[in-house]
Amino acid sequence: MNPESRDETIHLTATRRATSSGDQEPQDHPGVELFTLLLKAGLDADTARERIRAHAVMVTRQQQYHASTDGPHTQVTYRLEHREHGTDLWQPGTPGIGARWSYASHAKASARLAEAQERWPHYKHQLVEVTTAVTEKPVPALTGSLGRTDT
């Protein structure tokens, strides 16, 4: 196959398989150019599509992250605490080994609570919900030696 016919094949394949968005014709879609470049670089069509999909997923996740961090948001986690019967002092983690885990899922934390109650029945156990408010803001540039401003 000569290079000129390969270019025609690549263009036809990219045009035929690309999906249109809005009023764009498939050959005007921005993904067609990337698809063509990946094919010219030696990737087969299926691998090129997989790479484009993976990139699109990454961009979407990044956009969702930035959209969610534009303002303050809260994060809820759950942790286990225990205490001996007859005492009022709750201690974080599990008895004996003192492992301190936190769980983003209430269902998973509840399952761990049930396991702890079964494993260490001579302790009282409870689930604690921790709500953290998260606000992100840029930090001003540091000046001076090692960030010291009093030099």
What's the average pLDDT? 76
Order of H and E elements: HHHEEEHE
Strand content: 15-25%
Major sheet details: 4 strands, antiparallel
What does the radius of gyration come to? Answer: 28 Å
Gap from first CA to last CA: 70 Å
Structure description:
This protein is α+β, with helices and mostly antiparallel strands. The chain has two domains: 3-19 and 27-67; 73-134, no CATH class. It has four helices and four strands, in the order αααβββαβ. The protein has helices at residues 3-17, 30-40, 45-68, 106-119, and strands at residues 73-84, 91-92, 102-103, 123-134. Strands 1, 2, 3 and 4 form a four-stranded antiparallel beta sheet that branches. A hairpin with a 6-residue loop joins strand 1 and strand 2. Helix 1 runs antiparallel to helix 2 (30-40) and helix 2 (30-40) crosses helix 3 (45-68). It is elongated and about 75 Å long. Mean pLDDT is 76; it is low at 1-22.
